[in-house]
Amino acid sequence: PNIYQQIVEAKKERQKLLAILLDPDKIVWENLDHLIIKINQSPATHIFVGGSIVQATILEDLMAMLKQKTTLPVILFPGDPSQISAQADAILFLSLLSGRNPDYLIEYQVQAAPILKKTNLEVISTGYILIESGNETAVARVSKTQPLDRQNLDLVLATAQAGEMLGNKLIYLEAGSGAKKAVPSQMITLISQSVEIPIIVGGGIVDLQGIQTAYNAGADVVVIGTAFENNSHFFDTQG
Ligand code: 1GP
Q1: Is residue 23 part of an annotated ligand binding site?
Q2: I need a surface site. Which of 87, 167, 189, 219 has the fewest CB within 10 A?
Q3: Residue nearest to atom 2 of ligand 1 (CA)
Q4: Domains and their CATH numbers in the chain
Q5: Ligand 1: does its nearest atom lie under 6 Å from the Cβ of 174?
Q6: Using N-to-C axis directions, what is the helix angle for 153-165 and 185-194, rounded to 10°?
């Protein structure tokens, strides 16, 4: 089954999706079994795998474990073209539309294309928009780009609309991993009402209420990284 079609169907049905982000670089291997059990018990519908800097062997090892121990679809969320594993189900083919660094707009995509052609990965073009979040996040640092001003709704809107016109299948509103402030609700609402494609929201969401707030604002997919990484009981302690 086509993962993107499922996301579109869910949006139509107003069914909300939840992705747990695993950064291969931060995995504590002794805890991985337990972590995957907790993911299977959680309301997560997808697993995202990626990070700013990831060793290839670690990525493959993590993917092998995930394929063995969970039936959830695994989607690569790569920081660069080295983070491609044929063991995943799909890849977010990202363009960092908030930035003006050509590497993240076209260079890395050109490098990745021939590699992806040799796999069966479902490629999901994603307009990736980094929003200023009160602290410098790894995405901004590693990509050497400026996030968009969180007050400048017009610019975020124009960026999302351009992303859709360019043919992207998803818009990802990103505050950055470990962000102090999550993407503002008002912004999520505006963007979700102004583009047809599904909206992913992530970065700095630390409790179940934050997830609900993003859903209510119009997010179709919410991504939880750090909060689950810090507390594998995240989804049962607060239920
Ligand atoms: C980062 O949006 C994701 O790319 C998740 O962020 O680690 O803050 O949950 P957190």
Answers
A1: yes
A2: 167
A3: 202
A4: 3-237 (3.20.20.390)
A5: yes
A6: 30
Structure tokens at 117: 């052609």
Cβ of 203 less than 6 Å from ligand 1: yes
Q: Does 35 contact ligand 1 (Cβ within 6 A)?
A: no
Burial grade of 59 (CB within 10 A; 0-12, 13-18, 19 or more): buried
Say which residues have a Cβ less than 8 Å from residue 14's Cβ, sequence separation at least 6. none
Looking at this predicted complex, what is its ipTM? 0.98
Ligand 1 atom 4 nearest Cα: 177
* Distance between Cα 179 and ligand 1 center (Å): 7
Distances (CA, A) of 142 to 51, 55, 125, 128, 168: 10, 16, 21, 15, 23
CA distance 154 to 164: 15
Three-state SS string across 91-160, please? EEEEEECCCCCHHHHHHHHHHHHHHHHCCCCEEEEEEEEEECCCCCCHHHHHHCCCCECCCCHHHHHHHH
How far, CA to CA in Å, does 91 sit from each of 72, 75, 125?
14, 5, 8
Query: Could you report the per-residue pLDDT of 73-96, keeping only the tens digit for each?
Result: 999 999 999 999 999 999 999 999
Q: Where are the beta strands (DSSP E) in 23-80?
A: 46-49, 74-76
